[in-house]
Amino acid sequence: MLASDPAKKNSFNRSINNGDLVIVYERHDNMKAVTVSEGTVLQNRFGIFKHSDWLGKPFGSKVFSNKGGYVYLLYPTPELWTLVLSHRTQILYIADISFVVMYLEIVPGCLVLESGTGSGSLTTSLARAVAPTGHVYTFDFHEQRAGSARDDFERTGLSNLVTVRVRDIQGEGFPDEFTGLADAVFLDLPQPWLAVPSAAKMLKEDGTLCSFSPCIEQVQRSCEVLRTSFTDIRTFEVLLRAYEVREDKLESIEGNGDGSNGSLPCKRRQCSDGGNVMSSPISSVMARPCIEARGHTGYLTFARLRCLI
Amino acid sequence: MSESNSSSSRVTWEGCSVLLDINDGDRLVFARLSPAAKLKIGNKNCSLQPLIGRAFGTVFQVDTAPNGPYLSPAQVNVNNAEEIGDGQGNNEMDKVNVNNAAQARDGEVNVESRDNRALVDNNTAQSLTGEDIEAMRRQGARGNEIIEALIANSATFEKKTSFSQEKYRLKKQKKYAPKVLMRRPVARSICEAYFKKYPSKIGFLRVDTLSLLLSMANVSSNSDILVVDMVGGLLTGAVAERLGGTGFVCNSYFGQAPYSMDIVRIFNLSDEICKRILRSPISDLLPKESPEQVLEHDVCNVESQSNDQTSALASMDEISHSSENGISDIGIENTEPAIEIRKAPKAGERPQKEIIDSWRENGFSSLIVAAPELDAWTLVRDLLPLLANSAPFAIYHQYLQPLATCMHNLQLEKMAIGLQISEPWLREYQVLPSRTHPCMQMSAFGGYILSGTKICNSTANSSSNRTVLL
Ligand SMILES: C[S@@+](CC[C@H](N)C(=O)[O-])C[C@H]1O[C@@H](n2cnc3c(N)ncnc32)[C@H](O)[C@@H]1O
């Protein structure tokens, strides 16, 4: 997913090789992660796609099935990965993820602590932000989840940037070995306030913390605890509204609308006020918000470790 | 310069750029620290020398000494709620919350025995005169002592609700004991400061919108990011910060004159990172054959577009002027030009031929556009071919329509997939015991982003295959 070797760059002109992770794109709401394996096929409603046909093609190529249907093969990015990963838990999406990375001031070289790992959706973006010299240590108390996340980071090529560990962070806090070393801490836990004192201990002076909670009661309790050693405590909600765009012909009204000059017989309609509408369709590109939208994900509470001179 | 003198350092140094937040955002000043640099706070001229070698996040206060006022680190009062003694007995009144609370109306406090029915507003409430205060000062009283004296001599203070008491205290504190919080100038703080005080300079690019541009364009180490930055250099700086001294950010422009990149200098970018910021006319990046034609086309387009928008731009200017003293404050206040010269490698050099060749050969890893004055479609049509296949892009615009047209054309021309127009939405909350609610102030406008992924040119796209993919 990320170029660790500066010479190789993050250039997608590189062609697809056996063993590469590709994102198979059918539609914007239908994508799938596939590891290319010669001799294997991908089967979907468009037919059967032979992996061997993909080898040597550049990322971004359109490839065809035995029935002439097609899909696109895309280079994996954290954004695409979030859309295709297997949901073992609730996950964070692009709006929250982007804001978290920026607001925690995470840049290359940072050391970041995270709990829980969950499905690793956020972790993937944290890894991108700290690369190539930083590191993300992520903790989950669920052994199996931690294992699956580890497998995923192996698959996305991030295992040199991410370490997954099994630990009860609410019960035990973060390991002492990170005391005073973390640039940022991120919490997505059911009772985040239990982990706040440990997070404070881990952070460097002026280091940043973020806690994600779906419920306002969780936020309330977290903020109360944060006030002892943090400053600049701020809670946000971020959402994205998606728009759909289409070109359509709209009827335009000619004449003064009282029907007196409407002599053409074509497409005449009664208006609700009794006047006639003449149609002379004009094509225009129009946008409107999509009807279905995510109304709430969670509250993001940020804080900064207070400097005691 | 040593490694520590860079964006990652948590302690200031001589020549370092800082963001000074005076009285909880009332004034925001970008300054470069030097022994000679001075900042006027209230009616006092303070040297910034004491800020050198201090941790970011430190709060300073103005103290008086025989040889004039000076800034000294303020003792952080973790639990000043106890001083209020209002019976609530918790530590809710730290600096930030007081600030938030001040936005709420009196009487909203749930747990409150007093109300303001007995308060009469005449000017006799305060028995301390301006002369008294000056006299206290001459005797070396600190700001906090003056505030306590003002409270002790206020006839109405005791009758106020705890809420109004805190407001009173805060008002006096701002006047008699101003606080200066020293922050790290990073993409987040710079964007927020400009958005608050001078939003037109950054094309009204809100911090959450900026964060989305960076992730939608997959800005990551070792990538070569093509940007069109007409937001003062904020975008270029933010991308460079994420690249951390690897890859390149190519700040490109139409015509002969590069766009302003002043904001880049406010970031504390290390030399290694600065070297990764290159500036190039778009004509240099285009394939060799007849770049002239394409360019001319675009320039005239740009002109007609910006003429159309004259009225819109004028109204933005009004907005920014109305934010009064904010303007003069934002921007680097640098009294020592010598320091500027010492900062060796300048950001924004012309790329060398080999680098341009490698871009031509491999393509850019992604494209980000924040050009409020350019037409999105013509721009994307010309720049998208410069990207590698499967490269993501993100286009910001203040208006929806140019992006809708651009998206539609990209679909028709089958140049990209995964196309989406999104509008970021951000709401802040005041969180206090029994007083949690959305903040009164919210930015209703975060602009729009068109994002997508470039696909391989399916050779002359003649064989239009089935229906248009979204
Ligand atoms: C909602 S998920 C996190 C999702 C993640 N942010 C993502 O984007 O994929 C919460 C995780 O916290 C873990 N968790 C809950 N309590 C924990 C504890 N005390 N210590 C460590 N992990 C815990 C759960 O096992 C779960 O995987």
Automatic annotation (TrEMBL), chain A:
It holds the Pfam family GCD14. Keywords: Methyltransferase, Nucleus, S-adenosyl-L-methionine, Transferase, tRNA processing. It is an enzyme of class 2 (transferase). One of its GO terms (cellular component) is tRNA (m1A) methyltransferase complex. InterPro entries: SAM-dependent_MTases_sf, TRM61_C, tRNA_MeTrfase_Gcd14. S-adenosyl-L-methionine binds at S119, G120, S121, L122, D140, D168, D188. Residues 69-304 form the tRNA (adenine(58)-N(1))-methyltransferase catalytic subunit TRM61 C-terminal domain. Its EC number is 2.1.1.220. One of its GO terms (biological process) is tRNA methylation. Its main location: nucleus. SUPFAM superfamilies: S-adenosyl-L-methionine-dependent methyltransferases. CDD domains: AdoMet_MTases. It catalyses: adenosine(58) in tRNA + S-adenosyl-L-methionine = N(1)-methyladenosine(58) in tRNA + S-adenosyl-L-homocysteine + H(+). It is found in: Nucleus. This is tRNA (adenine(58)-N(1))-methyltransferase. The lineage of its organism: Eukaryota, Viridiplantae, Streptophyta, Embryophyta, Tracheophyta.
TrEMBL record, chain B:
Keywords: Nucleus, tRNA processing. Heterotetramer. It comes from the Eukaryota. This is tRNA (adenine(58)-N(1))-methyltransferase non-catalytic subunit TRM6. Belongs to the TRM6/GCD10 family. It comes from Sphenostylis stenocarpa. GO terms for cellular component: nucleus; tRNA (m1A) methyltransferase complex. InterPro entries: TRM6. GO terms for biological process: tRNA methylation. It is found in: Nucleus. It holds the Pfam family Gcd10p. Substrate-binding subunit of tRNA (adenine-N1-)-methyltransferase, which catalyzes the formation of N1-methyladenine at position 58 (m1A58) in initiator methionyl-tRNA. Coiled coil: none annotated. Its main location: nucleus.
